[in-house]
């Protein structure tokens, strides 16, 4: 357990969203995307889905640093029928 957790440090939702957004912007995420992602992560925590909440920030930052995540990538989609194809512009690091 972290020292912050031991002390019972808590953040209000809006404050945690601002912190998350600042972290994402610090690794190159555009402000609008950082706000969306940070808000979604905080919402997950507030809904009780902590494994999908702000704990993900560490893996997102690591992904940017190791080149697997493009922080400015914008998703796109195309749907010819009931099925949809989407792209998040992920960097493919698999080796065949």
Question: How would you describe this structure to a colleague?
Answer:
With 96 residues, the protein is mainly alpha-helical. It has a domain at 14-69: Orthogonal Bundle (Hypothetical Oxidoreductase Yiak, Chain: A, domain 1). The chain has helices at residues 3-7, 13-26, 31-46, 57-65; strands at residues 76-78, 85-87. The protein has a two-stranded antiparallel sheet. A hairpin with a 6-residue loop joins strand 1 (76-78) and strand 2 (85-87). It is globular, with a radius of gyration of 16 Å. The relative contact order is 0.12. The model has no long low-confidence stretch (mean pLDDT 85).
Q: Which ranges are low-confidence, i.e. pLDDT below 50, for 5 or more consecutive residues?
A: none
Q: Would you tell me the overall average pLDDT?
A: 85
Distance between the termini: 39 Å
Rounded to an integer in angstroms, the radius of gyration calculated over CA atoms is 16 Å
Strand content: 5-15%
Number of strand elements? 2
- Helices and strands, in order, run as HHHHEE
Q: What structural category do the secondary elements indicate?
A: mainly alpha
Write the topology of this structure.
Elements: H1 3-7, H2 13-26, H3 31-46, H4 57-65, E1 76-78, E2 85-87
Antiparallel strand pairs: 1-2
Helix pairs in contact: 2-3
Brief summary of the model shown:
The chain is mostly helical. 46% of the residues lie in helices and 6% in strands.
Keywords for this structure?
about 100 residues, Hypothetical Oxidoreductase Yiak, Chain: A, domain 1, single chain, 4 helices, two-stranded antiparallel sheet
């Amino acid at each position: 357990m972290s020292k912050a957790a031991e002390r019972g440090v808590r953040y209000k939702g809006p404050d945690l969203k601002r912190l998350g957004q600042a972290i994402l912007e610090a690794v190159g995420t555009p402000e609008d995307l950082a706000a969306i992602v940070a808000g979604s992560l905080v919402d997950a925590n507030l809904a009780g889905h902590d494994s999908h909440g702000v704990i993900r920030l560490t893996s997102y930052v690591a992904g940017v640093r190791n080149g697997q995540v493009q922080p400015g990538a914008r998703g796109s989609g195309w749907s010819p029928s009931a099925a949809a194809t989407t792209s998040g512009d992920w960097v493919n690091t698999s080796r065949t």
